Structures are given as C-alpha cells and as structure tokens.
Amino acid sequence: MPQTAPDVLPATLGLVGVGTIGSSVIRGLLTPGPGLPEPTPRVVLSPRGAAKAAELAGDFPSHVVIAKSNQEVVDSVECVIVAVLFKQVNEVMKGLVFREGQKVVTLVAGLLPKKLQELSSPASDCVSAIPLPAVARRSGSTLLTPPRPWAQALFGTCGKCVPVESEAEFKRLLCVTTLMGDFYKRQLTAQQWLSSNGVAEEDAAAWVGATFATFAADSREAEAWDV
C-alpha cells in the first residue's frame, strides 16, 4: 500500500470502535467547509458501533465504507485509529494483525504509545490522542503524544492540536479535561437561575451559551493573559 509523506495526513484511515469520540473525529475530517483537507481521506469503519457507523456512511457516502470485520479495517488502511473502551482494548487488539510501517492512533484514555506499540507490533509509528467532542465541528482540541507531523495534520484539521514529547506531561495535561463537567454544570446552573427568575428558557439558554462561548474565545490563546 502506498505511503503518504510523513508530514501529510494519511490518505486512508480506519476506525476500530465507532463511538462518540471516534465518530466526532471522522465527522470533523469529512464535513464540507473551510478547513476540509485536500485530498479528503478515505475512511473505513469497523462494524463495532453499527448505528454511528451507518450514520457516517450515510452522511459521507463518497468517503466512508463499513468493513465486515476489524481485521478488514486494518488490512485496508494506512492509519488505524483505535477507539474502543479501555476494558475492551486487549480483547479487540489481540487478534488483529498489523503491518510494519503502519500508523496507529489510540483515542483510549489510559492506553499510552508504548503499550499500543506492543499490541500492534510490527507497526511502530504509534501515538496517543485525546480529542474533545467539538472536533466534530473543527473547533475542538486534541492532546497528542508523541509529536508526529502526520498525526498533527490529522488532529489539526479538527481544531487545536497540542503535541507533547513526554508521557508524564501528557498525563498531567490530561487532568485538565476533568474541568469539562464543572464548566457545563456552571453553564446549566446559570441558565436555570435565569429561568427561575422570570427569564424565558429559550432566552436564558441563548444568552448563557453565547456568554460562555465568549469567555472561551477570549481565553483561547494563553499568551493573551498576564499571569
């Protein structure tokens, strides 16, 4: 199978485990609009997560096909994205045969590159990535280790990609994602407070959503803050 240049988004991508995050990445890569990669990659989906796989295949029929098995996914693509639950990783990957030179990405929290490489040997170009759901709209963020130009091209298409060399730094940065629930809870609490004090629910939702989005936009670049 022809290989793309090391700094270019892979031409063929396979997704093993079509859940919320994995399907969000694929949607971010394939939705027409500003930032759409050229050429647009071909995507092969595993039969795991049948409903989301069917939805993606229906939305992007020119670029997405559903394989009959996980092994068919691996055999068909240059880059495999593993996006199953952590407790399913060993079961799913132990029977898969990867190729030397194949690229492998895990979106599984807790599965780091060294272990991923053991599970996907002889493939050796392995990275761990944690994309947040807004990658579906190309406005998300992704934490990546180790830095690889092809992986940065992949996740950079879907928003902001933050690559780090150290697995220790990767795990430390990952802690910040736990603030997501707090952020959403504050937004909901503000919306409910407005509604309980006479503001129409629709207006409360629109204003709180827009205000929190403004806060996030203003803080997008850390360099803008005097800390």
TrEMBL record:
What terms describe the molecular function in GO for this protein?
pyrroline-5-carboxylate reductase activity
Any matching Pfam family: F420_oxidored
Coiled-coil regions listed in the entry = none
Spell out the InterPro entries in the cross-references. Answer: NAD(P)-bd_dom_sf, P5C_Rdtase_cat_N
Q: Where is the Pyrroline-5-carboxylate reductase catalytic N-terminal domain?
A: 13-109
Family from the record: Belongs to the pyrroline-5-carboxylate reductase family.
Protein name, entry field:
Pyrroline-5-carboxylate reductase catalytic N-terminal domain-containing protein
Organism equals Symbiodinium natans
Q: What is the lineage of its organism?
A: Eukaryota, Sar, Alveolata, Dinophyceae, Suessiales
